[in-house]
Design a protein that fits this description.
The complex is a heterodimer of chains A (381) and B (370). Chain A has helices spanning 7-23, 35-50, 69-81, 90-103, 106-118, 233-245, 253-268, 273-301, 309-332, 344-356, 364-375, and strands at 123-126, 142-145, 150-161, 168-174, 185-191, 197-202, 211-222, 226-227. By secondary structure, chain A is an alpha+beta fold. Chain A folds into 3 domains: 7-88, no CATH class; 123-233, Butyryl-CoA Dehydrogenase, subunit A, domain 2 (Beta Barrel), CATH 2.40.110; 246-375, Butyryl-CoA Dehydrogenase, subunit A, domain 3 (Up-down Bundle), CATH 1.20.140. In chain A, a hairpin with a 4-residue loop joins strand 2 and strand 3 (150-161). Chain A is globular and about 70 Å long. Chain B is α+β, with helices and mostly antiparallel strands and 370 residues long. Chain B is built from 11 helices and 12 strands. In chain B, the strands form 4 sheets. Chain B has a 4-stranded mixed beta sheet. In chain B, strands 4-5-9-8 form a 4-stranded antiparallel beta sheet, with no helix packed on it. In chain B, strand 4 (142-143) and strand 5 form a beta hairpin. Classes of the chains: A alpha+beta (381), B alpha+beta (370).
């Protein structure tokens, strides 16, 4: 057991830190859930891509550095420490890409990964439907084969994060109308400027258009935009879901950085005893998540799979995020309702975002079922 | 970065699990609980002999002192197993507290003698006289009218050959002693759990038992409290693991409304929350062991964090396990009560979760402001 980073890792950390210090915008960018902010964040992705910082773990040929999971964790620690912009491309980079690297054809990887890495093509996720949320296997959007090498998509997806301004969408569609539940589904990649696609932005609780509904009305999609095999969409999608709940979407740096700021806020406010417990617990939870991630990453580095522990992860990071921001708002007291990109308002903004955590990527109630059934072996209900 | 145990460490843990699953089964705990004092001493001596054969008590004693020369990272899995089995004997006190404390005080003659007893005679150690508070360590040891000292809540005195005891007064500060059991009187304290060995000890202050005094004793006592917090945290994650496993097994077996109760979401979610709390307490416990083994500057923070996380995880597991067992769990007949009672005791021993949260915060503020 060794909990220190190697000299090589520390050298990489220094390199990342100095690049970020030179390039991270001095002023926060406008929210990526506005048209202007979306383009500003896209430009930031391009800046990172040009110096090969946007996708450090990817193969070199697609714009990455072919680095391991610990370098990624180090990079994330530096990224959050530098208070760099949110990743507008995260659905593609952190969720679709690991799945594509596993299931994609060489042609798909060559076609889709470089523009994903540069921010030229930003992706959103098309999974949930009006009647298929927690019960994702109940999806009804369908795809049917044409006489040619194409498929026709019909139906409706919803709650597509970044969907309002994204360029592409990945999602699962029912390709076998006879099959039920998890069978007969296929994973498609769809350009949102295809004829027949209508995107309707949904204003969120903060008034910004963070997600959207997507309607598919006889949308023709070439068959080389199927990821994995026809009919295998569920297992391909579960690989993406594992990434979403597990390691790649929420690196611990996000929480340790926020917890560090919380401790500073607490100290700056004179260390009010009423907040002591909550501040200490928030710090410990963030650090426990980091330690757990190092633990899991060691397994991954040794070639083991993550498995259903990803569900435990998702419950923990989402609740930790809320705990950190609740403690901060309690410290702010009457200032807690102020908005703004820095100062008290960033805590409110973070709080609103944290409240979505137990809902997206499979509600925490569903994750508790997974933990109970797959980690504890309890019978399905 | 390599946050995992070695194969040898996993094997050692597995060996302890196998031995304790027979030597310290719930039936063995039940027999122990109802035995008279003499048979209880025999049962403890037999179990200790088995643990000593595995090398558990002297695991972290340096090879130069004839120990196994292993470290806290090797020991932490063994302690989790002791918690998992609800081991009545003072393995934490002997292996994780007395052994490294004495080894660090070598070549002090009293330390050398006590350590030799631990390694060569399989001596059992009791530990007492240090309390953890939000403001740091204090000693509950008091002088009595007959010129002796009185230390309450000493763990392990029943079977101990030697007692590692601390005292403090405003004039001379801290003192740490290794006192032979023959010169002490131990008066059993009426504790809830009969498998817990808790006594009030009367002992004489003598020059030849002195291990350290003043600043050195304070540093040793403070490090011992950190070791105790980290080691108790390992016992607690072991206990939590056991209670979650027992409750999950029961939830599969017990039927209501024609189905196993574990198929109901209300029950699943209780157990899932307990499992998640355990899942995230464990790496904190393992990190604390590593920080002890490598004398990290963050050691005190790491030990406090481990204790706070493990106390909360075990308390939650206890509460959930009792609820899932229903009325059966509230009975003497059900094995669960051994683990519940040990958890209630240990979650508060060496500083409860709230105390350690304050200690963590104090360290953070030092870091932030310093």
């Amino acid at each position: 057991m060794d909990l220190t980073f190697s000299a090589e890792h520390e050298a990489f950390r220094a390199e990342a830190r100095s690049w970020l210090a030179a390039h991270v915008p001095k002023e926060p960018l406008p929210s990526f859930d506005t048209a202007e902010g979306f383009e500003a964040h896209r430009a930031w992705e391009r800046t990172m891509f040009e110096d090969r910082w946007s996708v450090v773990t990817w193969p070199v040929e697609y714009g990455g550095r072919d680095l391991g999971i610990f370098e990624w964790l180090v990079f994330e620690e530096e990224y959050y420490r530098a208070r760099a912009p949110g990743r507008v491309s995260q659905n593609g980079v952190f969720l679709l890409a690991p799945t594509m690297l596993e299931y994609g054809t060489e042609a798909q990887k060559a076609r889709f990964l470089p523009p994903m890495a540069s921010g030229d093509e930003v992706w959103c996720q098309g999974w949930s439907e009006p009647d298929a949320g927690s019960d994702l296997a109940g999806i009804r959007s369908r795809a049917s084969r044409t006489d040619g090498p194409t498929w026709i998509l019909n139906g409706q997806k919803t709650w597509a994060s970044r969907g309002a301004f994204a360029d592409w969408c990945f999602g699962i569609f029912r390709t076998d109308p006879e099959a039920e539940r998890h069978r007969g589904l296929t994973y498609f990649l769809v350009a949102l400027d295809s004829p027949g696609v209508t995107v309707r932005p949904i204003p969120q609780i903060d008034g910004e258009t963070g997600f959207a509904e997507i309607f598919f009305d006889n949308v023709e999609v070439p068959e080389d935009q199927i990821l994995g095999e026809v009919g295998q969409g569920w297992s391909v999608a579960m690989a993406t879901a594992g990434s979403e709940r597990g390691l790649s979407l929420r690196s611990p740096a996000r929480y340790t950085e926020a917890a560090d700021r919380l401790v500073q806020l607490y100290a700056g406010r004179g260390g009010p005893p009423a907040s002591a417990d909550a501040v200490a617990q928030a710090h410990m939870d963030a650090e426990a998540y980091k330690l757990h991630t190092y633990w899991t990453a060691t397994k991954v580095a040794r070639g083991h799979a993550v498995g259903p522990e990803a569900s435990a992860n998702k419950i923990f990071w989402s609740e930790t995020d809320i705990a950190i921001h609740t403690a901060a708002l309690d410290l702010l007291g009457p200032e807690a309702e102020l908005v703004g990109a820095r100062g008290p308002g960033e805590w409110l903004d973070g709080y609103l975002f944290s409240l979505a955590g137990p809902i997206y990527a499979g509600t925490n109630e569903i994750q508790r079922n997974v933990v109970a059934e797959r980690l504890l072996g309890l019978p399905r209900g | 970065m390599d946050f995992a145990f070695t194969e040898e460490q996993e094997e050692l843990r597995a060996g302890v699990r196998t031995v304790l699953s027979s030597e310290c089964s719930p039936d063995a705990l039940r027999a122990f609980e109802v035995a008279d004092e003499a048979s209880r001493a025999d049962l403890s001596a037999n179990r200790w002999a088995v643990l000593a054969e595995l090398g558990a008590p002297a695991l972290v004693v340096p090879e130069s002192a004839n120990g196994l020369g292993l470290g806290d990272v090797d020991l932490v899995g063994v302690l989790e197993e002791a918690g998992y089995a609800c081991l009545p004997e003072p393995l934490l006190e002997t292996a994780a507290l007395a052994a490294p404390t004495l080894a660090a005080l070598l070549p002090e003659p009293a330390a050398a003698g006590a350590l030799a007893a631990l390694v060569e005679d399989d001596a059992v150690f009791a530990v007492g006289g240090i309390d953890v508070t939000p403001d740091g360590i204090t000693s509950p040891t008091e002088a009595t009218a007959d010129g002796m000292l009185r230390t309450p809540r000493v763990v392990g005195a029943r079977d101990a050959g030697l007692l590692l005891l601390a005292c403090r007064d405003d004039e001379s500060g801290w003192q740490l002693h290794a006192v032979p059991a023959s010169s002490c009187t131990a008066e059993p304290a009426p504790a809830l759990s009969a498998t817990r060995d808790l006594s009030t000890v009367h002992w004489p202050l003598a020059a030849d038992t002195l291990l350290a005094y003043g600043v050195a004793a304070e540093a040793a006592a403070s490090l011992l409290a950190g070791r105790a917090a980290a080691g108790t945290a390992a016992l607690l994650t072991g206990l939590a693991d056991r209670m979650v496993a027992m409750a999950a097994a029961y939830a599969k077996e017990r039927h209501q409304f024609g189905k196993p109760i574990g198929s109901f979401q209300a029950v699943k979610h209780l157990l899932a929350d307990a499992r998640v709390a355990l899942e995230f307490a464990r790496p904190a416990v393992y990190r604390a062991a590593w920080s002890l083994a490598t004398a990290q500057p963050t050691l005190s923070h790491d030990a406090s964090m481990a204790k706070a996380m493990a106390s909360d995880a075990a308390d939650r597991a206890a509460r959930v396990a009792l609820q899932v067992h229903g009325a059966l769990g509230y009975t003497w007949e059900c094995d669960l009560h051994f683990f519940l009672k040990r958890t209630w005791a240990l979650s508060r021993a060496w500083g409860d979760a709230a105390t350690h949260r304050r200690l963590v915060l104090a360290q953070l503020l030092d870091r932030t402001l310093g």
